[in-house]
Every structure is written in structure tokens, then in C-alpha cells.
Amino acid sequence: MHNNMSRAWTVREYGEPDTALRLEDVAAPAPGPGQIRVRVAATSCNFADVLLCRGEYQQKPPTPFTPGLELCGWVDDIGIGVDVALLADRVVGQPTLPHGGFADYALMKATDAYPVPEMIDDITAATLHLTYLTAWLGLHRRAALTAGKVVVVTAAAGGVGSAAVQIARAAGAFVIGIVSGAGKAATVDRLGADVVIDRSRVDVIEAVKSAAPGGADIVFESVGGGSYEQATKYIGFEGHIVLVGFASGIIPQSRLNHAFVKNYTLDGLHWSLYCTKRPDLVRAAQRDIFDMAAAGLIDPLITSRVGLGDVPTALHNLANGYTQGKTVITV
User: Fold this and answer.
1) DSSP character for 139?
2) Distance between CA atoms of 46 and 171, rounded to whole angstroms?
3) Which domain holds residue 190?
4) Which of 13, 104, 127, 205 is 20 to 30 Å apart from 286, CA to CA?
């Protein structure tokens, strides 16, 4: 494709992904000061992209915009003030909206780009940023994960959940994964969870307490609603409930007297805040994630690889809970 044009999935009016997104031919964006332009090789789908389409994400970019919050690609142009050595580097990172990753070209802050080691391919690299950083920062930074801790991961078959299972396993934790349905249970078993609980078949609170009589040290909670309420029942003494999202759409109202009586901590995680507040920590975490991937300690659960034309269908499936792990778009 000629350098001056870019195919881009564009949201002009908020709505469900399969109706809000339109594939348009647009001028390839020019990088501003401190920015790089990336020729996208692979980009992965996240629940945040669904929320962006609906206008429900914590960032609400003005329309029109292109979603896509996690990509791997090649730096092909740089803005003022950017080190020329970045040109032609292969990087992962979070694009700067409105020029997201569901396109031929995306823009990114140069400081948000992380060079990818040669032994990691584009498709794998495109999944090793947002979801794994969420898991790493939630578990290691917010909850002080160490070997032997009991870690419960709700929605353990999803993109961020499957990453959390692997990060916890790599740290030597005892991992309990909660899923809905036999297919997802089998997936999480293969990921290496010590115990898998199918919430469609058993009482979650009883099952966790049976597997971990002292309760959970850490709950990695991404569902909200009833899932959060259950976590407050099986959390252990001085445990941490790490809140990373509300995929159910139900934001729970915490009874703080309950945390007070049971001595547990609620840890919020908005991972991208670390990019501005502690970029050094994000770099260290990303290095560790790449090292673990290269060593085979983590292996992203990539269940679907599709072309750029299939973005709306991929996000529709994600929005409706039909997917496991990650869907990667190759460009």
C-alpha cells in the first residue's frame, strides 16, 4: 500500500463494534513532536476496544477515531525530538488515539514504544503488552505477589485473565482459575492453573474455600458484579482484591466495613497511569515479560488470527463472551 494512504477502522458514532466501525481509506497520519508512526504488523483485540466503540471507556476520544490499543509494528516515520535510531525498529506499545491500531498505520508516543526481541514473532508480541502489563502490575506491584501465595483469577480464560494465570504460575503461586463452561475450564487447565472452578456448575465460594482453606491471598478481579461480591467472601486475612475491570458491566458498591472487619485490601489498577507516573516500572515489567516469553515461562493464549477486514466480527465475539484468550489481527 502506498505510504500516503491507510485503511483504518473508524468510529464516527458510538455503538456496538459491528455497527459503529467503518473501514475507511484515510491519509496516513503524520507523527507530531515526540511521536512515531508505526506500520502495523499485528494488533490484538481487548475488551477496552469494545468499550471505546460504545463510548464507555475511561478515555473518550472525540469522534472520528480508530480504536486498537495494543500493537506490534515497524517504525516508519518520526516526529520532531525523536531519536532517529528508532526508525525501522520493530516495537510494541499502546497507540495514541485517535490513531489506534486497527489500521495500516498508527501513531504512538516514542516513550511508549518498546523494542521487541528478535526471537518473538509479530503475532505473539502484539499480545505481550497491554494484557500482560495489566497482569504483571496488578499482581507484582499492587498485590506484592511472591511464591506460594494463593492467587484466584476471575474470568481466567479471557485475555487478561489468561495472562494473569501465567504470570502467577511463573512466580510460583498456587493458582485457582474461575471460568464459565467446560470449554473454558479445559483451556485454563492447559494454561497450568492448579485448580479450575466452573462457576456454571459449582458454588464458587465453597469451591475456593475447599481448595484454599485459608482463603485467597490475591484475587485478580476483572468481572465486577457478583464475581466481586464472591471475592469478598473467599478473600483471606490480609488478602488483596485487585480490581482491573468490570466486564459484566456491573460496578459493585463496596461495603467498606466488610474490608475493615476482614482485614483485606482493595487495590485499583489503571495500568496506563504507570506510563506517566512510573515509566521506569513499565519498562522493567515489559522487559521481564519479554524475558519470560523468550524462556517459555509464558505463552500467550492466542485462539484466533484474522485479517484487518474481520475487526468488527472479532470485537462482536469478544463483547458477547464467545472468545477465549486473545484474537490477533494481522495487517
Assistant:
1) I
2) 24
3) 130-268
4) 104
Quick one: how far is CA 239 from the chain centroid?
A: 23
Within this chain, do residues 112 and 142 fall inside the same structural domain, yes or no? no
Cα–Cα–Cα angle for 325, 328, 331, rounded to 5 degrees: 180
Q: What DSSP character marks residue 30?
A: P
Query: Cα separations (Å) of 302 from 27, 44, 128, 323?
Result: 31, 9, 11, 10
Query: Which positions ≥6 away from 48 have C-beta within 8 Å?
Result: 57, 69, 130
Specify whether 121 is located in the same domain as 144.
no
Residue where the block lists cell 484466533? 304
Q: Give dist(CA 52, CA 15) in Å, integer.
A: 9
Give the global pTM. 0.90
Q: Encode pLDDT of 12-56 as tens digits.
A: 999 999 999 999 999 999 999 999 999 999 999 998 999 999 999
* Residue 2, pLDDT score: 43
Dihedral sign (CA 48, 93, 109, 280): positive
SS3 state of residue 100: coil
- Identify any residues that bridge with 326 across adjacent strands, giving them in sequence order: 302
Cell output for 206:
465453597
Residue closest to 137 by CA, chosen among 8, 283, 305: 283
Distance CA 306, CA 327 (A): 8
How many other CB atoms are there within 10 angstroms of residue 32's CB atom?
13
**Residue 169 shares a structural domain with residue 193:** yes
> Are 84 and 28 in the same domain?
yes
- Count CA within 13 A, CB hemisphere, residue 25: 5
